[in-house]
Amino acid sequence: MFARSRFVARRAIKFGSGSRTLSTTLPRRADITLTVDGKEVTVPQGTALIQACEAAGATVPRFCYHDRLAIAGNCRMCLVEVERSPKPVASCAMPAMPGSKVFTNTPLVHKAREGVMEFLLANHPLDCAICDQGGECDLQDQSMRYGSDRTRFHEITGKRAVENKDLGPIVKTSMNRCIQCTRCVRFANDVAGVEDLGTTGRGNDLQIGMYVEKVMDSEMSGNIIDLCPVGALTSKPYAFQARPWELKKTESIDVLDAVGSNIRIDSRGVQVMRIQPKINDEVNEEWINDKTRYAYDGLKYQRLTTPLVREGDRFVPATWEHALETIRHGLINSGAKGDEIKAVAGHLADTESLTTLKDLFNKLGSENLTLDQPFGDSPPATGVDLRSNYLFNTGIENIEEADAVLLIGTNPRHEAAIINTRFRKSFLRRGANFGLIGETFPSTFELEHLGQSAKDAETFFSKPGNGTFAKIWKEAKKPLIIVGSAVMETKDGAAVLKAVSKHVLANQARFLNQEWNGFSILQRAASRAAAYDLGFTPSTTSSSVKPKFIYLLNADEFDPTTIPSSSFVVYQGHHGDLGAQYADVCLPGSAYTEKSTTWINTEGRAQLGRTAVPPPGASREDWKILRALSEVLNQPLPYDDVLALRDRMWDISPTLVRYDSREIPSVELTKLGLQVLSENKTSQASGEKFKKPIEDFYRTDPISRASVTMAACSKAFTKGDYVPADVDEGATAQASYA
Amino acid sequence: MTTLARSIPRTVKEIRFHLCQTSPASRGVRQFILSSYSGIKASNPDLKFLVREAAGVEPKAFVRWERGVESSTGLSGLNEKDVASALNQLVNQQTVGKA
Ligand code: SF4
Ligand code: FES
């Protein structure tokens, strides 16, 4: 066979060596001009020829080339003719040269493509009818367009057969179909950080696998399914569920972490069939993590579909009218006044409903707006007055420029897997250095462990010592400190922020300037930045009040002891999880796939999710429920439709409705914010160890906890308990397609 | 600015500022925030003082009293002193009788 494994794991620069001499801004590269099919194009020097062709409007077929992965150049599908070159050249592996004349549409090129197709198909099983890739298969499409209409191969011995591999509960393999493009291997090594997915053997015997029998333990593994141009890697949970042409595609936003990954929800009828990434270079590039991708089956189970009213120790289905009336009576009978009326905003609350809830509770005379997190009953340590104090100021896209990164009390791999992939990228490409203060985790980049507690953080800033990282830190041109959201959920939050802000202010020139902001807080809940932007936080006085009426909006992570048994509790949300258990009345809301609402990610970027499927049963859009309740409570809110509500959001903060852009706080006010943090009167930092807030990546919220796929992942990856199925069962059946 | 800091009634629960990061019309508001933030917060620790920057917006101040009553005033082009007096006037508006 022709397939060559040219893949070499690219780790250009090793930890701590020479990386500091790299210039921190990318040099602007000169432009060059060449001719493609008689058309002149100008591209930056160093562009791959295939991209130059693309820029000239000439499509070049490809299998192995992918613009976000390293170049392998082993499929040969991208051959083009270049003047004065004796043979056709692989355009993906060839840089564009000034003045060259390229042809993508000549008889020679056509013949070359036909030949490559013929070789590929010689060993490819003819099982398109039962292959899940059908309809979105590059091999299928390109053989229709560029292939020959008949084959010359009649192999008596049959086609090449390759054993399937069991990579775990997510990726289904059918290795007979593999065309050895090595996209999956390059992704696993360069982006996901799974260095043991690789190739063995050569020529016709080249195989993709983990070398030994084991699962592919990565939170990003689902992406290799998208990358695989054929049906060799397909999705286990989605196996044989639908064909792509049956699906309605809705572009939306993920809410299972605070990154705000752009997604495409593929639905059929009222059911979400799968979730795919949508490209957004500023946020998730082209990737999403496995929870984003596969927690959707949780949307089918444990749903609240009708209002429920507690009678004794059971829930009775009720009409909306009855449920809302019960709440009115509950509020009156509880005798709650002012701050005794308490709201708790959970991780999955959308911005519209947070706004409505805040306005309603303010009208009722309450300032007791709390958050569903440890210490959520008292004002957050970051404060919410200045946005730069609680946002990921650096910007997701820009973190790749950081040359030294200090993580405090966070595991980006689980709290923001997408951000973690960017770290791996900067580690491999630029040799960025990383330090961690907090609980260790299996990271995808090299990491120096500098301590465990708030005290260690203070010490690192005051007496950094002589470790490798400490030395690099002192000289870093673009240093970056990331404080995890869990740090603010301990009593040491303010002390850590104080130490950090002092350090940042003392080194202003490097940390804060027009191009660089090296102070970032990493949120992990989709609703948190929105709640802070709105000022959905308690006051010091309200935190000491014992609540009599509690409204849980999507709150499922609270400590049950914070709910006095005498209080009247309302739960609004979409799943019967923790919150519903404590409720006197449950109001069924909509999940993120069922409503068109605003989400603010950890950078403060506003993005609009869109409705893909209708909410089940009697459930309604969340802000409308609260609007209706305001009417019943005789405190009608002044907005009747979503446009009026968004006007109100503008009045609270214009940043909430500036969609798809990031309003970056000015340097002056960022400094003011840091000054406020550094002057905080706080208690001494303790030596208590930071804890990872996410123990089990696959079960973090009501949706993923209800998901069967996530349960299987948790068992296989978090608990490491996976019994590989006999992957070659049915091998005899497959052989007949050869 | 301490007079303003002290004269904010307890019925004021939240003050919000909209301003632009760069425009000259927002310069006065920014100056005002930089110089009076700490003082106002020191004497009113429970007051929310939300500063929200967004490119090109008209600088404005909003005040929320008890029970969700709000009013606002435009601050476009005002200098620091005028911002302070406009704010003073706003927070001491007595039309909100509920206090
Ligand atoms: S499994 Fe798919 S992505 Fe991986 S080498 Fe084979 S064809 Fe390429
Ligand atoms: S795309 Fe160029 S060799 Fe595969």
TrEMBL record, chain A:
Q: Which UniProt keywords apply?
A: 4Fe-4S, Iron, Iron-sulfur, Metal-binding, NAD, Translocase
Asked if the keyword NAD belongs to this entry, the reply reads yes
Residue ranges of domain 4Fe-4S Mo/W bis-MGD-type in the record: 247-303
Which PROSITE patterns does its entry note?
2FE2S_FER_2, 4FE4S_HC3, 4FE4S_MOW_BIS_MGD, COMPLEX1_75K_1, COMPLEX1_75K_3
Q: Which Pfam families match?
A: Fer2_4, Fer4_NDSU1, Fer4_Nqo3, Molybdopterin, NADH-G_4Fe-4S_3, NADH_dhqG_C
Which ranges carry the 2Fe-2S ferredoxin-type domain?
A: 30-108
Q: Which InterPro entries match?
A: 2Fe-2S_ferredoxin-like_sf, 2Fe-2S_ferredoxin-type, Mopterin_OxRdtase, Mopterin_OxRdtase_4Fe-4S_dom, NADH_UbQ_OxRdtase_75kDa_su_CS, NADH_UbQ_OxRdtase_ferredoxin, NADH_UbQ_OxRdtase_Gsu, NADH_UbQ_OxRdtase_Gsu_4Fe4S-bd
Q: Where is the 4Fe-4S His(Cys)3-ligated-type domain?
A: 108-147
BP GO terms, sorted: ATP synthesis coupled electron transport
Q: Its Gene Ontology molecular function terms?
A: 4 iron, 4 sulfur cluster binding; metal ion binding; NADH dehydrogenase (ubiquinone) activity; oxidoreductase activity, acting on NAD(P)H
**SMART domains in the record, alphabetically?**
NADH-G_4Fe-4S_3 (SM00929)
Cofactor(s) listed in the protein's UniProt record: [2Fe-2S] cluster; [4Fe-4S] cluster
Q: Name one GO cellular component term.
A: membrane
What family, per the record? Belongs to the complex I 75 kDa subunit family.
> What protein does this entry describe?
NADH-ubiquinone oxidoreductase 78 kDa subunit, mitochondrial
To which species is this protein native?
A: Tremella mesenterica (Jelly fungus)
UniProtKB/TrEMBL annotation, chain B:
Q: Which Gene3D superfamilies match?
A: Glutaredoxin
* Main location as per UniProt: mitochondrion
The Ribosomal protein/NADH dehydrogenase domain is annotated at 21-94
Report the leader peptide range: none
Q: Which Pfam families match?
A: L51_S25_CI-B8
Q: Which GO terms describe its cellular component?
A: mitochondrial inner membrane
Instruction: Please give the InterPro entries that the UniProt record associates with this protein.
Output: NADH_Ub_cplx-1_asu_su-2, Ribosomal_mL43/mS25/NADH_DH, Thioredoxin-like_sf
* Annotated keywords: Electron transport, Membrane, Mitochondrion, Mitochondrion inner membrane, Respiratory chain, Transport, Ubiquinone
Please state where this protein is localized: Mitochondrion inner membrane
Q: Which SUPFAM superfamilies match?
A: Thioredoxin-like
**How is it placed in the membrane, per its record?**
Peripheral membrane protein
Family named by the database record: Belongs to the complex I NDUFA2 subunit family.
Q: Main role?
A: Accessory subunit of the mitochondrial membrane respiratory chain NADH dehydrogenase (Complex I), that is believed not to be involved in catalysis. Complex I functions in the transfer of electrons from NADH to the respiratory chain. The immediate electron acceptor for the enzyme is believed to be ubiquinone.
- What name appears for this protein in its UniProt entry? NADH dehydrogenase (Ubiquinone) 1 alpha subcomplex 2
- According to its UniProt entry, this protein's organism is Tremella mesenterica (Jelly fungus)
